[in-house]
Write a structure and sequence with these properties.
Pfam families: DUF6454 (PF20055), Sde0182_C (PF21027), Sde182_NH-like (PF07632). With 785 residues, the chain is an alpha+beta fold. Helices cover 15% and strands 32% of the residues.
Length: 785
Amino acid sequence: MSTSSLQSFLDKPRVFVLSDISNEPDDAESLVRFLLYSNQFDIEGIVAVTSTWMKTKVCPQDMHRIIDGYAGVVENLNNHTHPDHPYPTAETLRSLVKSGPPVLLTIKEKYPADQAASLRAKLRVYTISDQDDTSAWIRAEFPDVFYISSVHAWNQYGLAAWTGIAGDRYYGFDQGGPDFSKMTKSWIKKNIQVGPLGSTYPDYIFIPEGDTPTFLYIIQNGLGVREHPEYGSWGGRYALTDLSGEGLSGRHYSDTTDAVVGADGKTYTSDQATIWRWRDMFQNDFASRIQWSLNPDFKAANHHPVLCVNDSWGHEALELEIEAGEDIVFDASSSHDPDGDSLSFKWWQYKEPTATQWLVRFEVSNLEIENLEPDARRVKVRIPPPEQCCFDRFTTGSPVTRGQLLHLVLEVTDSAGNSLSSSTKVSRIRRSRQGPMTSILGALFFFLFGSATISPLSTMARPSLASPNITITRPSTPFAPSPLPPPNPLTHADEILAQFSKLTRSTSWRLVSKIPFEGELWEPEGIAKVGTDRYFVSAGEYTVPTRKFPDGKWEDGTDRTAGAGFGHIVVFDGQGQRIADATLSEKGSTEYHLGGIDYDGEFIWATLSEYRPNSTATVLRLSPATLQHDTLFRVGDHQGGIVHDPSNRTLTTLNWGGREGSIWSLDKPAPLSKFASPERRVTNPSHWIDYQDCKFLGHAKAYEDRAVMLCSGIAKVADGVEVGGVAIVDAQTLEPLMEVPITMRTDHGVLVTKNPVDVDVVDGRMQLYFLPEEGHSTLHVYEAE
């Protein structure tokens, strides 16, 4: 069978590994496992560092020794993986081995505050335990860093979740629960310590692979969701220590517990159980990959089942929104095994990620799962009624509009000796009539302290209930570059501001290119150029036009009917070819108008509003890599343009006509059950200029470090007469700092500044990107002569 039929994945996270290798054998063990998964990641560095247990030396030579073993098997490994995701060459890995100190302090000293914050926003740190005061210093000095670490008294590692990897005999926890048979030295000798790479795996002294959970957390097996450690993964389950998002623990995740039936039939509740519950899977996976390293023949080894649930292929979390009390059928009949092995299907509810406190059984409702086929390829799942899953039992005792996020896991396991499992997680959002909520699975930057590790052949997938309706036009083309590039406007902000300051009313503009965008674009509202070859466009499809009330009347605070339609994010390549279309609004929703958008290097920020003044809106962010989105908060007014200031963790949004701006703090989350309140509202000093689409340019030294944005705009000076322009605007006050009239029109007479705008610097020259026409739209690219 061709390897192109194997399970694939959408993107590769960037991974940077720090390891005190040779302090004891476990880091070397973890590195062996890590290399067997190296095709799943964009590895930025493998760095030998000191630690509290090895303070005076580093041992990069031991990393090279293991990579030498890898060099003898990489050709075999590539015969067992999808051709889109080959293993890196040994030469590439050798070039990544370094030694040296961390860089966070250097970032702080060498970069402006906004750029440093933008860099830190890309970090996801998993350090197992705090071995010295380094982790505490990082969390105190840089509280905005996403940080996973078990916290306990000095040297009390037996209390930490990561010891669930193999520490039950050494530390004495959960005796009788974990099955240790696949962690014994005899099993490891037979199944792991074989071949050129496996033979570099040393015998363990204390426990094997203590650092491995850092790597298991991001393995692409369908179970883990990288932005949500609380959902659980082979690397354990971790939750925020401070839900307020403020203070030194605002982004610190630490241990939680799972209740798991052990090998002796008893139930064990512990943080270690969040890892040892997966031990059989990750050890089978490890052993099978070792067999890949030994066998050039595809038929001589075992491979993961290929999953398909309700026509959705792959491991990515499937999110759906279901009305409380309803039934839904899940069909995995198209799943198959590339080796021709028979498959078993297991559907089960993972309750702990839903719970908000210790007493899971009192808080989390049961999913009723009914097999529709003898082998459980098809099941019917009944959602709990509203009084169970849409009810606040612990604080208000009242119904809630946003119900529980319930998690359903499908495990598909083959019948081979070292059986391999593929998993899909269906995380379902249970709500009583509220807009969709999406879990993010995007191309993220991972910065890992500790060793990396690898897992056995299990594939997990979560169907999760709330995904946008995505139409993919070019399945072989990724939605966004990997890794995600930094935002063009912020990267080139100084040059953009310098060139903008030279523009005048008489500046001549040269049309650099016109790129027709494929397919219907309805009414474009915002555009974001991501990298050099991707354009994301927000657009409104209006199926029922709004209608103004007669005689200038206003009803319920607005002047027109709601109308109907859909909000779209459409992706194009650099030639204008349509890649995908994500519909973000639901049929029947009155919020269908997508406004301007802003890309910050990680997310696209957007507003989804009613298409009328004095109405309502939802603020959301979307992953360019997956087109999945998070609903952040709701607003009791129409919102159009939006920019994100990553250094201040604020958003600026503009209401109908750009008459007023609102400043929002991302450190003060608001429940979706009520409208959020901004930090402040500001009146647009240029009242009659309707800013359409804006891009954040950072904190400009030329303007006393003010937060500034570039906006396109239109002003009506008389009936039927409009003038256009582009302005540099203070993002906190809406004060225009520089304004330049733009008079160019399309071949059909439309002002180019109508709605979408973006800016970049190409070959040293500032370029402006306009997409003004409705229907079949053409991108117009201009630069000043």
